[in-house]
């Protein structure tokens, strides 16, 4: 029997959102759960790739390479030196050319002594052995044996101030025979030429002035047996082989006056001092180092 009251239409509740229901899709801006203990992170700035940095004008990020260790062996010094030589000059030496360089052209120093300016004289004595006094200290010019202006040891550094610091380290060896200061700061070229008219056992200076004196035949090579390359880094992290312009001047000097002597075994090099310069994987030297146009010296 029908009732006099109108039927109320019951509102149906929306279906419950559950697993598998399409209604589970949500607005991505609305988080499902907020953890009150969550520490907010900063914006995730993805590191720019080298290509992106080059486009934006910034310097590309270079992969770090291992450093040349202190008290490096002759083999480690040689491989580092050849790596720098190829990189700086834009060449790639062939396997045959690399075989021309022997470990014996590099000098290994005593592991018990720090390679700083204060110990330089001790390292020199150890390198020359029993003949150190005759080679490094005596002042007499011997006709036909010891020419004027031809040092036995040449120390090459990146600056005049560093050269003076290194020369203080060999003061005990230069009491009878004055060392030659071969840099441009506060010293005239004429005064250096005058000094080189006498016997010189130890000379120290910068690449540019050394090359200039060699080109003028004022600085001789007939007696040169050892070249110390100062690997000390300055406050900005630059060394003789990495400081702009100075490194270019050094390689110019090396190509002009040292390269052939080093190959022939008439000259020995030593990388001296605490170093911040980098050493590539030794095995890379036998493969492609840089894809530059090859040249020879």
From TrEMBL:
Q: State where composition is biased (Basic and acidic residues).
A: 49-62
The lineage's top-level taxon is Eukaryota
Region entry Disordered, spans = 1-66
What is a single cellular component term in the Gene Ontology annotation?
nucleus
Q: Which Pfam families match?
A: CMS1
Annotated protein name in UniProt: Protein CMSS1
